[in-house]
Amino acid sequence: MKFTRDNGLSERRGTAAEAKAALLQAYKAAKEAAEPMNEARQAERLAVAEAREQRQAERARLKAEEKARAQAEAEERQAAIAAAARAEVDAREAAEKGRISRVIDDEAARKAERDRRYAARKARQG
After folding, report:
1. Dmax of the chain from CA atoms?
2. Is 30 domain-assigned?
3. Residues ≥6 apart with Cβ < 8 Å to 15
4. Domain span at residue 83?
5. In total, how many domains does the chain have?
6. What is the pLDDT of residues 4-26, one digit of tens each?
7. Is residue 21 included in any domain, yes or no?
8. Tens digits of per-residue pLDDT, 87-122?
């Protein structure tokens, strides 16, 4: 294709500006045509993000509940262990007190028997 006209600088600049304007016009038209699709895509992204946040909040809530439950169970176990230890100590103390009281009672009985024998001996002698 031969151009017979002599294209001067100003004509080439004008043609380039017209081409640039046509490209800009085409871009704006394409952008306007794609806008409903972009809005739908953006709405979909927002819905997905919202659903993700809800799932994360639910996971965090469940994790917090599980942690609280585990802590409560641990506290119950500690309380049961402490109660068992207290019961064992109380049982030991009661056994010790019982043993001590039996020893004291036995000692008192021995002293009473000794005193009785002493009194009987004195009665025989005197």
Report:
1. 171
2. yes
3. 7
4. 9-94
5. 1
6. 566 688 888 889 999 999 999 99
7. yes
8. 999 999 999 999 999 999 999 999 999 999 999 999
